[in-house]
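Continuing from the previous page of notes. For each protein in this section, the sequence appears first, followed by its structure tokens. Read the first protein now.
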Amino acid sequence: MNDKQRGRVRNRVPALLAGCAFFVGGVVSPLGVHSARADTAPAPAASVGGMIKPTSPEQRIPDFVGLVKQVKPAVVSITAMIKASVAESENGGGMGGGSPFPFPFPFQMMPQQSRQPVEARGSGFVISADGYVVTNNHVVKGATKVTVTLDDGTTLPARVVGRDSKTDLALLKVTSSQKLPFIELGRSDDVQPGEWVIAVGNPYGLGGTVTAGIVSARGRDINEGPYDNFIQVDAPINRGNSGGPLFTQDGKVVGVNTAILSPSGGGSIGIGFAIPSDTVRSVVDQLRKSGHVVRGYLGVNAQTISPAMASALNLPAPTQPGAPPAGALVASVAPGSPAEKAGLKTEDVVTELNGQKVGSPHDLAVRVADIAPGTQITLSYIRAGKPDTAKVTVGNLSGAAGASAASGSPTSAGQHLGVSLVPLTQQTRQQLGLGADVHGVVVSDVEPGSAADQAGVRPGDVIQAVGGASVDTPKAVVGAVHAALGAKKPVLLRILREGQSLFVAVSPDQGAAAPASGDGDADGDDDAN
């Protein structure tokens, strides 16, 4: 910018400021700065030609100087030599720029170095005087060598004690000739949206960087892992902040900075995510003891509940009008699982775990995973419109068969139905890869624009139950659907798709056509609309 351009910019500033005046009558801002009032004396004007001495407001924006001085000695920078193959996969995959929720992987590869080990930099913090350090799994994943640099510049070799990819946490150990300053994990369940938080870390290699903001939300699921339960913050988090601590004003760590929302794959836009300290405490304790993490196992595959499903299941109406139904609808129960042993069945709706509300299948999955195997829990559920409870002894996820559905992972389902049906013959079983123990009716066709098409019902889906009653013929399906629609009541269908059970609710006011007659033609096809 030349002098002439600078002059134009300077000349525009007074004009811009002059257009920005505003007045709020009698309102006190959250920061305690009082707006003008008719009975408030104006601030004294500066004397012409004299020194301006502004007066400070009675209340100020929070000052974190003292807090930062106290906690910084426990925040460290981490350098890892990463295998080229791992570095390339991380930079080119979900942690790079393809996902709108990338982990801020702490380095950028140089093309000429792609075959050589890559130096990665991240953040971490000391949690004990004997040298245990918490960071992110993706900071040290594939590392051949890891070093930790303390706040005073001391560099120490580090050993990876254990890693957990599902929560993106890792525990390191350094050895020092003296006790190290460390910080305490707080309780993330006590953190509330709107609360001030401070992030400290090593973004882009700039160690000891401090940023501040507020908690924007809790319990965020960004689909980066099965147990996502992030704290969302607007404190700037960038590449290299990975693994660094998120502090509240009492100086305790309530989160580990892990991911950012970055549609362009670049830096922070003010939406960052931290792993809650309650999760960190559980994972780190297990990594310290055994080097790996054991998770609880329930043995159900659950899905969210649509309003039509809630009506079909005779669930109580939400306390707030328009609110989505809460709970986790059991779509299937793994044979021999803790859930089956406790008597849980498909179509049960889990509403509480140990007296605390279950809002969704993801909520159930996260909470069960945090429970130690062998622990007995109480599940409250609704079956056929009636509440009940069951005592369940939580199993071990790592040793469970079919563990992908063990902790209540959600599945997707349509809400409406309109299909052509055929019997499940031996030839159809072979085509679909179904065993002799599978029973039901096959969806042979879906009419474009029909209620089924809108719901996402696919040819090849196997309808196994209508309204809780098993079906083996197209006529049985059509008859049950007719009866329910004639009663102006939604009906619930249980279908099998690619080995997974899920539910579809058919609402009488959503169908695109009247129900079919129920008489099958020569080849056994029936229509249920």
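Done with the first. The second protein uses the same format. Note its length before scrolling.
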Amino acid sequence: MKKNILYIGIAVVTGLLAGWLLFGNHNAESNSSTAGSDTHDHSSETAEQMWTCSMHPQIMTSAPGDCPICGMELIPVQSSAEGLAANEIKMTKNAMALANIQTIKVGSSVASDDEGMMSLSGKIAANEENNAVQSSYFDGRLEQLNISYEGQQVSRGQLLATIYAPQLVAAQQELITAASLKESQPGLYQAVKTKLKNWKLSESQINAVESSGKVRDNFPVYATVSGTVVQVMAAEGDYLKQGQPILKLNNLNSVWAEFDAYESQLASLKVGQQLKVTTNAYANKEFDASVSFIDPVLNNATRTISLRATLQNTEGIFKPGMFVTGKLKGEINKNEESLRVPASAVMWTGERSVVYIKTNPNEPVFEMREVSIGNRSGENYTITAGLQKGDEIVTNGTFTVDAAAQLQGKNSMMNQGKQEVSEMPLSEMKMKFSESFQKDFNEVLQSYLQMKDAFVKSDSEQVSAFAKATSKYLKTIPRGSLGQMEQSHIKKSIEILDAIAQNDKLENQRDHYVTLNENMVPIAMNVEGATPIYVQKCPMANNNKGAVWLSTEKDIKNPYYGDAMLTCGSVIEKIN
């Protein structure tokens, strides 16, 4: 009996042990699998999708819709990786490969076949010294014009036109009469012949009239030079005055190559300097020339200077408008602080130069960096500030990286990510006006607001009419007691209003409207009135610099774009 109990106990223990081995491990594996599954699901979760505007990257929303500034449809923002700085972007390896993005590490020098050569970009222009104008030598009607289009070749002595000239008809009759009296009055005869010669009639033409005794109604005009027609300045049937131009010709046997040089390159340029000129049309040929002129005035907009070289063009190789490149020896600053990078790495926006730096050596992470450039040597730029030796920069696919930065709302060429600090805020521009001026100015505002509504409707005629009325009201307000700043703003406002009134092109009127509001808005902000006035601003107007206007309505109705972007803008100030 005891043995049976013992056997039963051993069997139970064995069964429990076997059950634990079979099912215990399975449950552990199941729990482990479940835990792993939970971990996997958690790691696959992505951040909430954000949406932005392609024109206003600062707009970020968690749901699709329309841009609150310009009304354009929002686009999804690319997901960014964790751990990135504020203006860093990360690209996928697939995107890097498709865009063929290449980088190099910045060193003290870059290999170049044009070491010590300065490269300038320019284009071919007509040599203005070879310009000639064919004019009418007498009053008359243009009966026939044998030259009808630009680019036509003209040879010296070629018949250009035929003109009916009443003055010459009378002069011929005088010649016939004087010829019969030339023995008794030789002075009169010679005076009549001289008058006809001054009208460019040849000796043979004068003799033909004298011998035939017949008056000729129409007279030919012959080319005095050879060249290419660059402008036809008259048409058949026109009544011409003496000296009025008919054609403008240019002899293209020599042309000008006009180049733009940076301000920093001026020290290396001088008249008479030799340069090599190349063009895409003849990529394997170089043409010798020398600098013949350097413009004494710097272009303030581009910060460049123009220089010119004269090229012989007897074979007609160079065509006006053709792009060319000039290379000449220049003094390259090789101080230790200057670095040289490929020209393809630098993006120039007109106001600044930028490059993209790879901030993580092991990951495709980039950030925009503003740099200062010096001379261009061959296909390389000298960097005077903004980079350090060892920085890794993008040299190919730079615009693709910049486009990715724009879509992610990071600093880029289009979105600088900084505020303008050069202008005084409107709210800080304090002016003082008398009570009578303020009362009169409120009447001026009513006419101004009508003009604003005409801008919203894109009605140029109404804009001109209300601008004229606003100017008239503003001129009648006494302003002798006002300060210098106040008078300056009023005077400028009247000047711009008159310009708008005299202009019938809506685009030009809107350009003037920007300047008008720069003067009118500060006045309105310092004038008390019964009706609240809103100062509103469109960030895209005035070439993306932004422009303001006044309105009695809080809702945005954009006068700079009208129906094209009616709701683009926002209220930046309320005048009580």
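What the second structure shows: The chain is about 30% helix and 25% strand. The two ends are 109 Å apart (CA to CA). We return to this in next week's lecture.
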